[in-house]
Design a protein that fits this description.
Order of helices and strands: HEEEEEHHHH
Low-confidence stretches: none
Strand content: 15-25%
């Protein structure tokens, strides 16, 4: 056999070796991550539940999921051990941000557009706003025929309407 006929098999075996090697590295990192768990750590299970570690045993973990709710999970069921900041952000909605002194953007965008003249705002709100594209010359010529065309047209039927009622 020549070297050219063996080359595809050698490449295939090499690719399989590299894939198993990377899978073993990921598995080893997951084991190390699970061994870092301590009571008080925030975790996410593989099912997506967030809880706090209460007790760590050899193969199991006792989790506190809320007031009076303690759950026993296998260590392999822990998907991630979270940092305190990340756990508080996800579970409690507490943002720990270094830019906390920066200006806070309000939830209501109307406070960003207020001018302070409430009388002008009240009159501006009463006017109808036409958002259609029309030229000034077309506007006066199209106004009368458009009204007449609507009265001559028959109402359109929808799928649910029936004249046999």
């Amino acid at each position: 056999m020549s070297l050219l006929t063996l080359l595809p098999f050698i490449v295939l075996i090499g690719a399989m070796f590299l894939m198993t090697r990377s899978a073993k590295k990921k598995q080893q990192q997951a084991v190390e991550m699970r061994n870092q768990m301590q009571p008080g750590s925030g975790v996410r299970t593989i099912g997506g539940m967030y809880a706090t570690v209460k007790e760590v045993n050899e193969d199991t973990v006792l989790l506190d999921a809320g007031p009076g709710v303690e759950l026993l999970f296998a260590k392999n069921a822990i998907g991630a051990v979270l940092t305190d900041d990340e756990y508080n952000r996800i579970v409690h909605g507490i943002e720990h941000d270094l830019k906390s002194d920066a200006d806070i953007v309000p939830d209501d965008a109307s406070s960003l557009t207020e001018t302070g003249d409430s009388a002008a705002d009240a009159t501006a709100d009463d006017k109808a706003v036409d958002l259609g594209k029309k030229d000034a010359g077309d506007e006066s010529a199209d106004a009368a025929p458009a009204g007449e065309a609507k009265t001559d047209e028959e109402p359109k039927k929808t799928d649910g309407d029936s004249e046999a009622k």
